[in-house]
Amino acid sequence: MGLRTHLYKFHQKHGRLVDFAGFEMPEFYEGIIPEHLAVRNEVGIFDVTHMGRCVVEGTDAAVFLNHILTRDLVSASVGQGRYSVICNERGGIIDDLVVFRLGEERFLLVYNASNRRKDYEWIIDHARGFQSQIRDMSDKVVMFAVQGPKAVKVLQSVADTDLSSIRYYRGSWMTLGGEEIFVSRTGYTGEDGFEIFLWDTPLAKSDRAERLWQTILEAGHEFGIKPCGLGARDTLRTEAGMCLYGNDIDEDTTPLEAKMDFVVQLEREDFIGKEALLKQKAEGVRRVLVGIRALEKGIPRAGGKIISQGREIGRLTSGTFSPLLRYGIGLGYVPPVYAQIGTRVDVLTRRTPFHAEIVNTPFYDTSKYGRRRLSI
Questions:
Q1: So where are the chain's domains?
Q2: 153: how many CB neighbours lie within 10 A of its CB?
Q3: Whole-structure pTM over 0.90, yes or no?
């Protein structure tokens, strides 16, 4: 029997369960395609309680985080969140994560489910010498993601705070569905939406999580809300060009190679991995992450070969059939000389290669989809 979240009974009753990072989680309920399209066009809700969460607090909390993260946290205001990465001394990515400043000396870190133990132990090991305390909150905080162009309307109907006042990558405490929660305007789908944190909720208090989940589902009924599983979460993040740890980024991949330069502030004080990243930037990366679009029948898959003029130039790290665009899309690494938009390549995932091209991400038209869309 695997690990379970507070909503296991709901997932078991309504979804198709799979193992993910040791958890019994829903791959889908109705189906990957309808759940995916619900998030792109209306709204969906995900149980993401399996993710890792810890609180870092104390007089040195901000200074400590600046030591282990590539992005500055000292300058973050209370309620502000920042996406960052933890690097090893070689500049490889130990994990990508989101950090929220809950108070002057209190921060919430949210990281990948597959790295829950690894990240927590790494943070503890590197906190020596700093006046900070670290508490693992993963089993005590419930976490839902409500994503899609109608997410604001759904949650506003059961919230006591004006959600439109919360800017992107900001968070606020409020009452929602009768529960005091922390809400952040973030997500992993490319769409506008929120992640909801219900605190002080161990598995023994699963009824609180179940009630909040049902409250949101009921509030979203008129807006076409669907509960969504891991399948849609993966296709949505791939369409948005977002990396998945263990596929697109890992300890042998640097943020410069993964085109995550925006989370690396090389001009500030020392942080773990800075010297290696400075050297790589000066010398130039040998490979870079690109988006790949199939030009004919064929679906890019992780591990597939990227070929130019009969020679393998790289490998796919993610790939899927896009439910929105109705063709195959993928992410992979190639030498910079092949990374120019419009470059034609072949992709080999099974026996027969198919034609593809290098494209920008997100893969969709950002004027029609995603959080920057022009209209709903």
A1: 8-47+139-238, 53-124, 286-376
A2: 17
A3: yes
- Class of domain 286-376 (CATH, top level): mainly beta
Fold agreement between 8-47+139-238 and 53-124 = no
Under the banding of pLDDT at 50, 70 and 90, the label for residue 366 is: very high
Region of 123 (left: φ > 0; alpha: ψ -120 to 50; beta: rest) is alpha
Average pLDDT of the residues in 364-375: 92
Its CATH architecture, for the domain 53-124, is 2-Layer Sandwich (3.30)
Contacts 24+ apart (CB under 8 A), 311-318: 313/338, 313/345, 314/287, 314/338, 316/292, 316/347, 316/349, 317/247, 317/248, 317/289, 318/238, 318/244, 318/247, 318/248
State the pairing for strand pair 23-28/16-20.
antiparallel
Domain spanning 8-47+139-238: which CATH class is it, in words? alpha beta
**Mean per-residue pLDDT of the chain:** 97
pLDDT-derived band of residue 289, with 50, 70 and 90 as boundaries? very high
Q: What is the pLDDT of residues 102-136, one digit of tens each?
A: 999 999 999 999 999 999 999 999 999 999 999 99
Are the C-beta atoms of 93 and 251 separated by less than 8 Å?
Answer: yes
What is the per-residue pLDDT for 375?
67
Residues ≥6 apart with Cβ < 8 Å to 184: 81, 98, 100, 166, 169, 170, 171, 194, 195, 197
